[in-house]
Amino acid sequence: MDPPPINYNVYFPNGYINYESPICMVISAVLWRSFYILIRFFFPHVAPEFSSRILSATHGLLSAFLGINQCFLFDWPFDHPEWKTSYIQSFIMTMSFGYFVHDGLWMLKYDRKGPIGFQRIQKIFKCLFPDKTMMCHHLLCILGLTKIIFKGYSGGQATCALGSMEITNPFLQGRWFLRTAGMQNTPVYKSTELTFFLVFIVVRIVIGSYFLNIILRQSKNDWDFIIMSLGIYILSWLFAWGMLKYVWKHYVQSRPDEKT
């Protein structure tokens, strides 16, 4: 007797990969880890953080481009949290889930204060719990993405918010690479730094406040989604407060002999 045919729809519904499956989520983390190892192979003489930041910049560009596109659907996604998660939205969230898992484990191994390099300017920022803030950020992202991936709806507002937040990442990584290259006193570095701060405040605080207001007023949102949104918003304020203190010290009250 011939064996029964394999039901490919379990893993490839409608001919596509099922990114909502736990297998794909694990594979996503493995692929990000493999990408990191590949970068380390081609750049063996640089610090591990160099490779990690290339990874962060890659994820930032991908998630920002793909996620922001989800903000411009047929209707505003924040008005319809009940919308079923689309195929591309599942892909974006699974991709980002794997990245945050990899980067969180990387931080635990190398004891970095955060994927945006706050460890070298910790005394400048002096955020509340600077060594735990980014880990909390990653943990909230992992929990939030996992919840939305498995429940199968609200993917539109999740990917739109993710893409909007990650738009600051390329400026952040560019700032770190310029600093590492010893260009912190150049106009290019200063403009990149100020652009990053400005975009962060506008996106994470101004637009983030608008997003949060919609989420809180939308009765169709789950309570856990609201709590995680509040958590990300509070963490954004912690980072923003540190940035404002940095700008005040180095651009408003700066001295000629003060090092940046």
TrEMBL record:
Pfam families: TRAM_LAG1_CLN8. PROSITE patterns: TLC. Keywords: Membrane, Transmembrane, Transmembrane helix. It is a multi-pass membrane protein. One of its GO terms (cellular component) is membrane. InterPro entries: TLC-dom (IPR006634), TLCD5 (IPR042512). The chain crosses the membrane at residues 20-43, 55-76, 88-108, 194-216, 223-244. Residues 45-236 form the TLC domain. It comes from the Eukaryota. It is found in: Membrane. This is TLC domain-containing protein. It comes from Dendroctonus ponderosae.
